[in-house]
Design brief:
The chain is α+β, with helices and mostly antiparallel strands. The chain has a domain of about 70 residues. It has a 4-stranded antiparallel beta sheet. Strand 3 and strand 4 form a beta hairpin.
Length: about 110
């Protein structure tokens, strides 16, 4: 379970905020193994025909969920991808995920 808080930062304040926070942050273990300390995240979000999941987010509904397919870096047939379901119940966020390969997903 985790809690997420998101804030809008005016672009003119970004550099000062980045500089102030950098001494307290560390790269995640996956980024540390990558060239230049970065990696690509690819996500496909799923919704109902009426965009119910989108509307619950926009309307600020306390109990909502997201369904997504997520992969990292290259997208070849052997790459690991994750089918994830994220649920939010007021504050905490719960995530369940199952892994497979991109090749299996392409066959669906």
């Amino acid at each position: 379970m985790r809690y997420e808080f998101k804030y809008l930062v005016p672009s003119e304040q970004y550099q000062a905020l980045h500089s102030a926070m950098t001494p307290f942050l560390r790269r995640d273990s996956f980024a540390a193994k990558q060239d230049m300390g970065m990696y690509t995240v690819r996500s496909i979000y799923f919704d109902t025909p009426g965009f119910d999941m989108y509307h619950t987010k926009i309307e600020g509904i306390a109990h909502r969920m997201k369904v997504r397919l997520r992969g990292y870096n290259v997208g070849d047939d052997q790459s690991t991808v994750f089918m994830e379901i994220k649920r939010k119940y007021e504050g905490p966020i719960l995530k369940n995920r199952a892994s497979t390969t991109f090749g299996v997903i392409k066959e669906l």
